[in-house]
User: Fold this.
Amino acid sequence: MGSSSPAIEVNLQDCYPTPSSIHPDTWNQWFASWLEILQPQTPAAFGWEVTLRLTDDREIQTLNRDYRHQDRPTDVLAFAELDIDSPLGEGLESEPSYLGDIVISVETASRQAQEQGHPLEIELVWLASHGFLHLLGWDHPTDEKLQEMLSMQEQFLKNIGLISKARSRN
Assistant:
């Protein structure tokens, strides 16, 4: 990561019964590399913090029902804390800014990984990158915007050396 890029701290909450094989330091490195890719479009800050929670279908279904009014499990949810389009408040230039929470259902990710024919770790990283983009203000209300997000996710995975293992997602 370049010296002009702010740091990012990933608070990993691995709540799934089978812990992920991805080390917390690795998550930090990956998110930092993604932030560096997006640096020209990301507001200046001293640093960033994000929570990544790996959980099960039951918990994510509850969150999906309570916050999105969809009573079913989903693969990933992102809860943005910071309005990325607004200027940072006073004092935030000297301490990390909290971007928000990314919640991933490992159960759903596992099913999707099998369907896509790649390892669970690839699916977890794919979903984390999708949630990260949402925290930074990206959205996909149209097919064109969805393709932009998917393209950026592919760039993220390529940047960290996982694209050769990941299949294109449509």
Summary: The two ends are 30 Å apart (CA to CA).
